[in-house]
Amino acid sequence: MPVSGAPFEDGALLLRGDTIIEVGNKSELIKKFPSAEVIDLGFTAILPGLINSHVHLELTNLGPRRGVARVSFAFWLLGLVVGTRIRTERYFMESIKRGLKLLKESGTTTAGHIATFIRNPAQLFGEAGIRGVIFLEAIGLKKRDTARIAATLRNEITQFENSELVTPAISPHAPYSVSEDLFRKISEISKAEKFPISIHVAESIDEVKLIKSNKGKFKKILYPLLGLKRYAPAGRGRTPLQYLYELGVIDENTSAVHCVHLHEDDIKILSESKASVIHCPRSNYYLNVGKAPLKQLYEAKINLCLATDGLVSNSTLSLWDEARFLKKQNPWLDSESILRMMTVNPARALRMDGRIGTLSPGKSADFIAVDLRGYDGGNIYDFLISNTSSERIKGVWVGGKDILDQ
Fold it and tell me: Which domain does 256 fall in, by range?
């Protein structure tokens, strides 16, 4: 199942080192390359490794979370800020390790990881064998801190130069936690280095109220309790997305995460700017923030990606579980499109579509084998979305190496 084309039976990949050389019929490839080693994966579907484009691995040990949060988003966020302040570096390292293991077991080969506390987890990703785009999170509302934060980001980026599996990126956290000046500075860095940007945006109605009119629970509760009342953003008379667009932050390198509360003009901006949207439906459900206007985004041909967020707002890190929840919420969405939201679309969002996301000659040999027990024909996409779990993952390859037991 190359994703770049229609699925076909009796398929095979020809690998040379860490690269896919050919994709085609198994018998024909064996005949063409008689000296090549043959590995028979049995009755499985071979498809691109999954890409979880937005995940907070440092928060893995704060979950899992099930059901619906009993507090508002503002109080949940306050609890998260306070709760992480008492944790140690070792705690976050162990969380990342556990999260990487869970990702690998469910068939994820690339993670768009938000790095808040452990700024360079390259060694941990290397040990797990998983590819990572490491979004260095930036938070800062004080204008005087802009130059210092920007300098720190530039220095941290240089620390990734010799990393084989990970690449750096930047995540200015959200419109309510990053100043105008810092957004502009990060946008400059991103454009100069051609780095992707990931931003939490329009996740809750309180964020919309704050940015638009300086009202809501963020204004009344969050900032005073965090000692940041004087730094609360002024009302802009704009939606969060419009505000970010006017700052020059929304473009083809931007992933807008959550996007629950969007105006029709926001959708037009996302479409025209060629930004990506990362949809985290189970996190949105747990936090009780609402449902994203997925059908309107889909019809606007926006690059849609599916992600789990972290276990602090979700029950698992499995994209298959996320896909089933998505399908239940949106029965109109076909399973092939959902699989694309887990493979080729996030590859594009992470600016890695030249290397991963499809099974194509010249791309990295990142793929998985899924046991097809019980499949007797019909729509293979429906079968995979309905039935795949970690128990069906029979192999996970990154760069041609099986990392499942690594």
Answer: 50-349
